[in-house]
Amino acid sequence: MRYSEFRELVREVLGPQVGPALVRDQVLGALGDRTAQEALDEGVDPRVVWRALCDAMGVPEHERLGRDHAVRERR
User: Fold this and answer.
1) pLDDT in 10s for each residue of the chain, 75 residues
2) Which of 10, 11, 37, 73 yields a CA-CA distance of 20 to 30 A from 22?
3) How many distinct structural domains can be found in the chain?
């Protein structure tokens, strides 16, 4: 996962207002008590950060890859 894909999923799945705030402010135990942004800045793979953020926010597995992915799966 690229950083741009991470940012896109944050906005799409978590919301354009709330998502970026969570990345910046939500401390995640799964990331060593760091925010998602701190983990990314320290070189943690965006895929790992995305999973940790989704787990913490209770995002169901089927929603984690966004709407475009869900549409492709149904075809």
Assistant:
1) 999 999 999 999 999 999 999 999 999 999 999 999 999 999 999 999 999 999 999 999 999 998 765 443 444
2) 73
3) 1
